[in-house]
Amino acid sequence: LPRGYRSVASGRRQPEHSDGRQRWLEARPYPLYTLGFAAGALHEAVQQHGATTLRYLGVRDEAEDLLRRFAPTPAMLDFLSGKAGLPLPQPFYTQLLVPGGAAQEVSGHAVIGKAMLDPMLDEPQEDWVIVHELAHQWWGNWLTCDSWAEFWLNEGITSFMTAAWKQHRWGEAAYQRELQLAEKRWQRAREA
What is the pTM of this model? Predict the structure, then answer.
């Protein structure tokens, strides 16, 4: 990568070579569709939460803004670990904030668009994208469906875990609202 660029990829970052090359190694057997990478002139913030290193990268946002935007992540990590009965599958997790409307889980990290995250700045209960993509680290990435015909299981369980987080954090009305939104999305998909 050009000097000054940061990268994120599935797996653990390996020591940088003297020529500046950055390498990543994924030692766990993940489905190939969950592997990914990104690189660029990115801002970075790092936060330690227990045994987990949380890394936040942003195309335009400085470190303090990244920490503010992703502030709910540690509590969500605790909640999901408790519900899964297992810690995060790896000792690190990165969230990459990009322009636009991205919302994509990748093994070890997530790509999240500002259009998906920014509503949370005015309405904190709109924190769904962080918890949904984080939930995929257990359900969808680590434990996944057997075939594409069962892919709905990956999204179904993470949609439910998003609603469960909302209930835990924001109460019963937020839980019911999230389930209603999911039902509307599924209905639109069935009709299409």
Answer: 0.93
